[in-house]
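Incident review: delayed structure delivery

Summary: a single-chain prediction request sat in the queue longer than the usual turnaround. Root cause was a stuck worker, restarted by the on-call engineer. No data loss occurred. The affected request and its eventual output are reproduced below so the record is complete for anyone auditing the incident later.

Affected input:
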Amino acid sequence: MNSMRILAIVAMCGCLAGAAWGADVILNEYNAVGSSEFLNGGDSAADQDGGRASDSYFGRVQGNGGDWFELVVITDHLDMRGWYFDLFEGGSLDETLTLTDHAIWSDLRSGTIITVAEDVPSDISYNPAAGDWWINVQANNDADGLYIEASSFPVSSNNWQLRIRDAAGAVVFGPAGEGISPVSGISSTEVFRLEADPDDSITPYSNKYDDASDFSTFGAPNRWGVQNLRRLRTVELEPASITAIGPNGAELLVAGSVALIQWESEGAVDQVLVEFSFDGGASWMTVFPANVGNTGQYAWTVPPVDSEQCLIRVSSATQLSVYDTSDEPFTIVMPSSAD
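Output delivered after worker restart:
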């Protein structure tokens, strides 16, 4: 083999490695739940295992929020203006979405979460110093096209994959998704998620990509435990705190009634995540419908459980380390037991 041919092969291998290793941005999660299905099956009241599998943003809803996928920025001060998202379904390229030249894409900080959704309006309030690391942009045929091409797109359990290209057309990451990893497949009642802390070691072939049916986290760190993005996020945050006020212990609530969950917050807490546990904090579920904004209270329809080990937890949706729980367990009883 002559030296020129060797050099050509080495150069080609370098290009391939660059597309799959040390990527500037990676795929973090996508929704494969079918439009007529619920996460982990079942119906609106309970999943197939008797629980309430849900999304941290949408709650437990049919379709689990519709067509959406989520990215994490790995490289600090990244310029993604004019980048391309190639979406494959069933082994074929179905759609390419192009980011616009809007300034929001010109200086992205490492640790930023980007979601692209058909049904959720764009929100570019993005302010890492205030703890807001999330950019959501809406892409469908009727969208405004200010931040991403106005085109509807598919996300499904039919061997869906994503390839990311920069403005010059060079592959930055992917294709990644079902059939690449996990090879076992994703069903129409599951999501795809990265079950590891995102960094530049993640490739499309990582065995940390997996299917999941217990929880999804549109616009927030993944939860198989809690995904840690702190190593990526070098921006100094403004201080923030949350104090749960009630229920805070010893209360007796009746399933089906409406109880007021209340909290106080200080600093940069624009959006809070409200959750409950009926096993002393061993597992947590989001309230339904999901809380919106941060008003300091939430009218909670008490779920149909019978337990003396119930807790509520209120967290900053952008700084999961900022949270508070009930000081002591409270009790939920079924209506017949309250008579």
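Verification: The domain at 240-338 is CATH 2.60.40.10 (Immunoglobulin-like).
Action items: add queue-age alerting; document worker restart procedure.
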